[in-house]
Amino acid sequence: MQRRLLSPVWILFSVIIVSWGCSKLDTTDIGSDLIPAVDNVTTFDTILTINTTQGIFTDTPTITRSEDHVLGMISNDPLFGTTTANVYMQLKPVFYPFYFGKANDTINNTLASGTGFDSIVLCMNYKGFWGDSMQPINLIVKEVSPNNGKWDSLYEDKNIAYVPNTGATIGNLSLDIKKLKNWVKYANKRDSVRFQIRIPLSASFANSIFSKNNDTAVNGVFRTDSLFRAFQNGIAVLATGGNGLISTNLADTSTKLEIHYRKKNGGAIDTAYTSFKLSTNFLSTFNYPSATCNNVIRNRTGAAVSAPASDAIYLQAGPGTYANLSIPALSTLTNRIVHRAEIIVEQVPFSSAVDALLTPPSYLYLDLKDTGTTNKWKPIYFDLNPSIGYDPDFKLSSTFYPGTIDLIYFGGYSQDKIVAAVPVKAYNINITRYVQQIVTKHTTNYQMRLFAPNSFAYPQYSNIGIPYYNSFAIGRVKVGSGSNANYKMRLRIIYSKI
Known about the structure:
Number of domains: 2
Largest sheet: 8 strands, antiparallel
Radius of gyration: 27 Å
Number of strands: 30
């Protein structure tokens, strides 16, 4: 079974996790801070209670045409409900006026000549899979209808709630994820490919394309981009069954409409193919950017997350959920030297079978509620990257965010842990400098937000999304709240008295 997508920095963190697993926290050099052992003579530790409440995001993020999309269905998750992810795209000729083959090729589709068109295959880039690979992902392909309002606006990215109108079904596939590793040979017997989703399209759709062969006349559909888009407005790939999500990139060269044909150019008949692809070109006046959309529907009705118990928090990758955290005791903590302050988050086991397939997000992120604003948040002070100066209030510095998070120092990545003799995932988030500032200078003790983004933004400063390290929509986990008896979310502080 394939269980989860690989993190883009998995090699680095494999080394880190192995290294950390060989020694105790108190005596390990984490980041740039040497943490002395707790001896209860000069160095002490304390646990502060974290008050937690469940939150669910109601925003509709936008996935741009060049970002990874998700496709598939989660049909059986008792904790988080169902997810349906559909993909819409325009695949177009790469030049205009467009023609098949070369200028002198013969492609006339008659039995006598032996030349002509064979088939059309929709090919989609495959980057990974999350879920139960023993169940097939059922897909159907439809044409996008011409009447779609702003679907075809040249420079407009669509949010995940947008759903274009669709027309006739032109293909279907029961996708066996396990077979994607097998090589598939093309009709020309020369080229082959693997780790690519290939959906044969119907003869009627193929004929609609083939009938326009070398249609480069003044009003022909292959003459200009606008004429082609009026003829073929896009393709929808819709998930109708399965229990997993595929990660795909539409801008990758392996995503294409592959058109196979037989040609003759003064000699033997040759089998060839050409491709229509996604256009991301904003500069060309001949081939404008393709419209795309990733419609993602979360239905949590009846799932545990819809009515969480007081001892549980449910964290789901975006479009997902979050936790509100507050630590009242920080406001009354006396001054001391803080060697380490970390929030500890531990998974609450549900079902070994379900948890092994629908795995936790690779990374969690923590930020602060911006005092005096409504539903606005800001980065945590100091600890995202202590080697880069930044000002979350955007007053004393020209940057409110460090640009790069030092994950070795800040933490927040998934680790293996044994709790009550049961293996679970856990996260440690370093807020040492933030806590030191509070106890020394009595600065504001902010409410916090814990979540698993693939990107986020602080609109009071900028609407530009800040990318994070999770794959879009991939990962979910039940963790202990601040009142959980066995998997308590907590703040541990290692300190020395002054």
